[in-house]
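input
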Amino acid sequence: MEFLDGTWKKEVCDWETLLGDSVLNQEAVLEGAIHSIRHMGDVAFVILRRREGLFQTVFESEQVNVSIHDLKEGMTVRVRGTVSEEERAPHGRELRIRSIEILSAPAEPMPMAIDKWKLNTSLEAKLNLRSIALRNIQERSKFKIQEALTRAFRDYLYEKGFTEIHTPKIGARGAEGGANLFKFSYFHKPAVLAQSPQFYKQMMVGVFDRVFETGPVFRAEKHNTKRHLNEYTSLDFEMGYIDGFEEIMAMETGYLQYAMELLKKEYAKELSILKAELPDVSRIPAVRFDEAKQLVAKKYDRKIRNPYDLEPEEEALIGQYFKEEYDADFVFVTHYPSKKRPFYAMDDPADERFTLSFDLLFHGLEVTTGGQRIHDYKALREKIAARGMEEEGMEQYLDTFKHGMPPHGGLGIGLERLTMQLLGEENVREACLFPRDLNRLEP
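output
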């Protein structure tokens, strides 16, 4: 009988050991996928791809147990050889191969040149062959940056006393209302895919005070633009006992500061590969919705066509205005009109035409929506009635407020949009592993 103690000894070198002094001029074992093969006569450079990056190995024909012609891009191998210093190699190290064990071999040649520094192909081709295209170092690096944004969100909110929750994505009705719901039959009952975890995270404020979630949300919007997806990842939090919606904005600013520091500290390699410059998040300006519209209308001689919402062009101009005037990459736009916000948004006591809510624009694109919620049971029911809405299907949500709720608010951040803007991509699909849009259900 064997007992597992949580450890597993491997002969294979880990990355830190490989780059350290202990194996220099010593024999080492390395595993990876063959990323590229560069023939130089009797010598070939076989570049291995590992999770940490690329590592150069040297193949000298007479020294190795297999022929160089037996090696193919995409093969996974275990190689044994001597580690030596080589300043021209990535990381200043290379391994001179003595033997190779082939772990798996590709059934056919690589369909695209993933070993090139930048994939020279269309977005459509990259998406059709997504799992192959992502083996390209640049393509892969985008999602290490996305990892950092999610990791920072979790770590920062844990530090601030939040509890992580996981809410259902199948429900009886949507939290936001409207027509952008994916409807389907759930064991012969009508059901929808969640537009957001809004109801559940509000309900959980009554339990844990501060909660957060990272998960998919679904919008049945028939958009075919560079900024919309029908399934995206939302970084959500909700917090109780707030003094005002500005506290939500301050918490998000703190998260962004934490995320940028984490990127600098632990993801410098990926930032360098992508040539990404981090934005300044030390101070983020905030401007009222109506004031923002007036500012860009005046400066850019643009007529205000819709007084109740921001058009994409207006968002871009607001971003441009605050970059030109204050060198700001982000800007909070506050006090959105009540008629364009969900029923649970708290109206401004000073002027009920507006709400205590905000959007965060990053380089002229909305990446966050948030604000203070109505926490009083009577006021919530009155707002529902004033909207001409029915309470049917919201009984359990309303029961939460019937039995007392603290002043609270929260937000949702679109992870793909945040990644897209951070990396300067033009299409949000570049920042989504497997995009779902109007026309794409595969891969």
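quick obs: The chain has a mean pLDDT of 93.
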